[in-house]
UniProtKB/TrEMBL annotation:
Protein name as annotated: Cytochrome P450
Single GO term (MF): heme binding
Annotated InterPro entries: Cyt_P450, Cyt_P450_CS, Cyt_P450_E_grp-I, Cyt_P450_sf
Entry similarity comment: Belongs to the cytochrome P450 family.
Protein species of origin: Dendrobium nobile
Residues binding heme, per UniProt: C461
Cofactors that this protein relies on: heme
Region forming the signal peptide: none
Membrane-traversing stretches: 12-30
Amino acid sequence: MDITMEQQVFFYLQLLLIFLISFVLLNILAKNNKAQKKDPPGPWRLPIVGNLFLLNPNKPLRSLISLSNKHGPLILLHFGSIPTLVVSSRDIAKEIFTKHDLTFSGRPFLTAAKKLLYNSSSISFAPYGDHWRQARKIAMLELLSSRRVRSFEVVRREEVEKLVATIRDLSIANLSELSLSFANNVVCRAALGDELGDEFGDGRYGGKGGVWLHQLLSETQSLFGGFCVADFFPGMEWIDRLRGFHGRMEKNFEEMNTFFDRVLYEHDLKMRLKEEDIRGEEEKDLVHVLLRLHKAAVLHGGFLSNIDHVKAILVEVFIAGTDTSSATITWTMTELIRNPRVLKKLQEELQQATNGNSHRLIQESELEKLEYLKQVIKESLRLKPPVPLLVPRETIQECEIQGYTIPAYTRVIFNAAAISTDPNIWEKPLEFWPERFEGRDVDFKGHDFDLFPFGFGRRKCPGINFAMVIVELALANLLHCFDWSIPNGMKAEDINMEEAIGVTIHKKEALCLVAKPKW
Ligand code: HEM
């Protein structure tokens, strides 16, 4: 059949019409879509630096709290070129956990983690995915399980004995330093075993080797807490090189890497001598456990066949486990000395717990019944959470929160400290008042959104049991063995409560107190 000229024109007109209608419809849809995509509120920002100028570098936490007070509990800031969502409300944190936990389970790829944690192959800074899942499983089942934590009871007891003996010889105790070396020694002995090895000073934690390792780890902590230009201005690594930050990271990494190579080599030698260790018997430290898993992975294939991943997990245990526990001990002692009523009540509880035989140390088996001690620590974690902004997260896909669109790869900060001192949730929020938890079932292990010092969801801290027993045992014995007072006629109000900066928040000025032995 022939098509007439008229029919042809009509056909092309129809096509044109369809094209025009589709074009208009698509445009409307695109506009609607754009109109629907709403950014969370946030302050005005400058080109290039974004909102960085709004952060007081000495008090970033306080700056974030005041920005949230001004702009709302869900704000979008730009740190350099990095969009960063700040969550400062219990209800929004709960919405995220219950509806979008997976979306918020990423971690940003930060320079220090890339360099010091073997290309972010540990747990805390590993991007969400199979590697992280496998590493976390090992942490939960093998390294930080209740059984493993119990197996280090002797280590903790011996270190507490040493701590108490050291303080008996001091006229003034620097509790910031003492609690850090106590936590360091417990973590080192749990991770590496009882001896450091002769290449590292005299091979003992209390000696030169211990001091050297302590300094090395402090530098690692400080690099993690430091400001790295490339994390806010990708492509500008050269500035970090120029200002020496890269050099510091390289040096710290080389020293740490050599140290762990040596530790692994020595453990391997011992394991070869004692074949039974490979089957998992007599595992005395975490290096043994990791080496067993590494050997099995090399033989049969699987996770941890790469020795760098073993080293990354070991560095992680140190950086995640020592500072946080010692900061909790120091802040709790600070609050107690400022609150003599609470201090006295707690000492009475400890006295009763010893069943009349008070001239001895409190044992781990007695911690369970110390209700008031638990309330005191909970209150300290509420007022001074050691990791107040948690570890930064990153969205792995786009999602909608409170009607706002949050794109994939947005960095996310949860302001746990703002929530745990929110006057809408807590009565007298800035007062140290442990009795607030009496009969109030507030869990702090990531199930309750009023208080989550250990984070929540898939990425919450797997070291809670490991940390809590260290903190409880140290505090119970510090308070049971000594009466504490403030030196040089200072008053409680004179104690400087300023916070140092870093991922873990320490007391800026060391806590120095007079310790009078009770027995
Ligand atoms: C008082 C002591 C501690 C506090 C306050 C604390 C706090 C935290 C916080 C806030 C996070 C981030 C959670 C999140 O993103 O939701 C975290 C993660 C982590 N913590 Fe702890 N922590 C403590 C002790 C420990 C200890 C003793 C260890 C191990 C020895 C440990 C190992 C880890 C690891 C591996 C992660 C990363 C989890 C992941 O990304 O999957 N922490 N911790």
